[in-house]
Amino acid sequence: MRKLVVGWILIGSLGYFVLPWYMINDGFLSFSWLIEYELEDHASGIIFGLTEKKWLLPLIGPLIFPLILFFFKYSRRTYANIFLISGLVGFLYFFFQGYAIGVRGWNYPIFESLFGEIDRQFGIGLGAVLTISTFIFYVTHGLSSRGWLNGDNFIVGTIWLIIILVTLFVFMPIFSMLHRAFINSEGVHTLVSFSDKFINKGLWGLDCLVSNVGCGVVWNTLTMGVLTALSSTLLGLGFALLVARTNFKFKRLFKVLSVLPIITPPFVIGLAIIILFGRSGAVSTFLEWGFDVERSRWIYGLSGIWFAQTLAFTPITFLVLIGVIESVSPSMEEASQTLRAGKWQVFKTVTFPLIRPGIANAFLLGFIESLADFGNPLVLGGDFDVLSTEIFFAVVGAQYDESRAAVLAIILLSMVLLAFYVQNQWLGKRSYVSITGKGDSGLYAELPQSIKNFIYFIVIPWGLLTLVIYVMIMFGGFVEMWGVDHSFTLKHYVNAFSVSFDEKIGLHWTGTAWNSFSTTFWVAVLSAPPTAAIGILTAYLLARHNFIGKKAFEFGTMLSFAIPGTIIGVSYIFAFNTPPIEITGTGIILIISFVFRNMPVGVRAGIASMNQLDPHLDEASATLNANSYQTFKNIILPLLKPAIVAALVFSFVRAMTAISAVIFLVSARYDLATSYILGRLESNDYGLAIVYASALIVVMLITIVIIQLLVGRRKLGRRDQYFSLIQGNTG
Predict the structure, then answer these.
(1) 457-477 per-position pLDDT tens digit
(2) Which of 548, 565, 322, 350 is nearest to 445 (CA)?
(3) Which superfamily is assigned to 215-430+444-468 in CATH?
């Protein structure tokens, strides 16, 4: 412990006394600050404090104050209080000076009247980050030394770290956006402005029940969310059971087909559906020619959005459910079979109840994704309006009504909270533990034939439809104009990904897509590990530990997933365009937005898997004198490999295909693939857009395989013998 304390004091001292305090325009890794260690841009905190920015000087006190513990002998209580007070004083003062002083001096006139005029400051750099991290360690170490959460440094530190990160990168940006719901056109805060926009017939109207007039936007959204959640959960469960519990000959192919839609930009899926099922689509043309079926516009509206969202979000439910189903230990199924229970009884009374947490979490994620999606409603919505598109047009449309967008976002949040409450009520306080550490044969119970037939009935046609859609997408890259001129060509690939060689400069990436492609890939690679890490750690804390504010903590982790991406993007601009966190236009803001936007998937997948791990495993580890960190690393993590894979895969592919949040955050230097594709679609350059989307699909498939190989599979008993045994019994 002494080494840990000394290490953190050295880290904080390095940040305050040596490294640049403010952000460097060229980036820290350019190391320009080493060559140009100038006061203006690259100086350390202590140098700034001793010269022009004297408000930084008081930070030295709480930073070095714990050093007195190495010269005098104190009681454990005094030891804890010194760290706690030093950390709190340093953290609060850092927070005050950061938000009170901006690019024009004091942000609030009252401070200028009290303390006079001062110089400006910029966004914090690496030095400030290390210093504030040290203060956070002081606080957590002080709390654990006082016995909080049984004095467990790992648990206390993890809770505080996640609380601070979620507060900083979820609550604060959302608050910066939502408080505008109470601002009128004159910029004055008032409840009247909120109520006028909230109580609106266009939102809550039910004229559709008595006439042909459409219902309010809220009811459209709720209907769409429930339908999509039901269909995507049912299909996800079907795919998961097909892959995990049957000996279907082509199940590996269907496992690939189950995740294909998640690795495709949503507007590309919408465009493929239009090409296939629109009035001039291939399927519509064939049905009219072969069966005299009149062409229609059924694909636009509720049915089209439902179809597209089910296609897009089934992979999410599958990734959650496959981990849960693979986590079910056969011991209870074996016990049921020894009591002469039939296949249907085993499935109904044992298997299905044990996977209820996964079903509930999959439904919740499908519902939230449907509510937050605006790409599919934008392409296929027609006159069927939903909250996400209304928010989008309120923010980026001609009306530009931030207050209305904020009101709609509050309604959307309320719907998500309702779904969250219903899920908790359905799960109740039942136990879903199945992995106890006790031995079993490792052989799953065979599914009833009726369940198998139902799975084949819904999964195989859907998988084949998915295959057709992606064949069409790939086909579109080799024709002049998809849906118009199908002459073979390679010009789209040449324009996007051409490479040339020059004797002077060597290999030259001349294709127009290379810049955005490389940026997108590295942003996705860098954002996936922290997304999975924070998600799994959060799931562990929620499933295994009780602490004050746990419900609010869980809500905070889901909040970013519930808000439409457009709101996330705009709120990040408002929150991080000025000091102390000035990262708009950088690659860091893209990584951060992806981490906290996608973190809930890791949380829900982790919770679903953690509910199946017997807490006695933790207790057994503790009896062997293992601390919580060792238990988590050596016991919990190996058993959470399905959830880890789900979090890594989802975060990576969503970072590669996201558009709604990052469309506001990209810059000329940090452009992303989806914004590039959207630009090509707006220019009617469909061929180039499809080529780029096809390349993304191939890269993401390869990366998913690599992630699976790196993480590995959790091994519980003789699982590899299962399918051969089933095949022998049914042969």
Answers:
(1) 999 999 888 888 888 878 878
(2) 350
(3) MetI-like (1.10.3720.10)
